[in-house]
Amino acid sequence: MKAGNLDVDIREMVIDDLPLVFHLGEKLFTPEEFSNLYRTWDEYEVTYLFQTEPEFCLVATIDDKLAGFALGYTVEKPRTAWDYGHLVWLGVDEPYQRHGLATKLFEEFMEIMQTKGVRIMVVDTQANNKGAIHFFKKHGFDNPIKHVYMSLNLDEVSREKGR
Ligand SMILES: CC(C)(COP(=O)(O)OP(=O)(O)OC[C@H]1O[C@@H](n2cnc3c(N)ncnc32)[C@H](O)[C@@H]1OP(=O)(O)O)[C@@H](O)C(=O)NCCC(=O)NCCS
């Protein structure tokens, strides 16, 4: 499969990909940049998604070398089973960005979701992740809903209460 001028292979993730995907994610989803407030990129995230619904864990390789990945899961809704699909982590190694790899990963991911009966796909990202927002808009995502996350520092609460 050609993505730009690169020969890309998109396939399901296998066990040997796990450490490579984890380390690429460490580069892409740093706490400062493009992290996800309610999910943390760690080895458990990768192994959990792989163990739970491996068919929604895809990798992109170029000459057998990992270049990107897409990881997600489906959400069962009462009366509309497997209706929602969540693309949680989409990442492409920096040297390969803007060559259409994420587009290929996304298209394959969407196709698999459709075959599993998913009707609505959701994505989320930090409001300052302009590249990802542009990418998702280009691929038809709209109707962004603002969601407010608030935090409470429990160490400070303890200090105030003298605990
Ligand atoms: C977002 C990301 C996955 C895009 O991967 P990619 O392989 O470069 O994407 P594509 O080449 O398929 O881009 C398709 C289109 O999306 C848009 N796009 C992609 N990256 C963009 C960026 N940084 N800024 C603006 N638009 C961007 C462009 O319209 C692009 O088309 P063009 O190159 O012809 O202009 C990649 O930049 C990445 O891994 N970012 C860090 C992790 C992240 O934020 N993931 C998303 C949230 S989980």
- Give the overall average pLDDT: 90
Fold-level CATH name: Aminopeptidase
Q: How many helices?
A: 5
- Total strands: 6
Please summarize the sheet with the most strands: 6 strands, mixed
Write out the distinct hetero groups bound to the structure. coenzyme A
The figure for the number of domains is 1
Q: Topology as H/E string?
A: EEHHEEEHEHH
CATH architecture: 3-Layer(aba) Sandwich
CATH homologous superfamily designation: Gcn5-related N-acetyltransferase (GNAT)
Rg on CA atoms, Å: 17 Å
Query: Structural class, please?
Result: alpha+beta
Which CATH class applies here? Alpha Beta
* Low-confidence regions: none
Helix content: 25-40%
Overall, the morphology is: globular
Q: What strand line-up does the widest sheet have?
A: 1-2-3-4-5-6
Distance between the termini: 60 Å
Detailed description of the structure:
The protein has a six-stranded mixed sheet with strand order 1-2-3-4-5-6. Helices cover 32% and strands 27% of the residues. The protein has five helices and six strands. Strand 4 and strand 5 form a beta hairpin. It has a single domain, classed as 3-Layer(aba) Sandwich (Aminopeptidase), CATH 3.40.630.30. The protein has helices at residues 18-28, 43-52, 101-115, 130-138, 154-160; strands spanning 2-3, 6-12, 57-62, 65-77, 80-92, 120-122. Helix 1 packs across helix 2. It is α+β, with helices and mostly antiparallel strands and 163 residues long. The structure holds coenzyme A. Coenzyme A binds next to strand 5, helix 3 and helix 4.
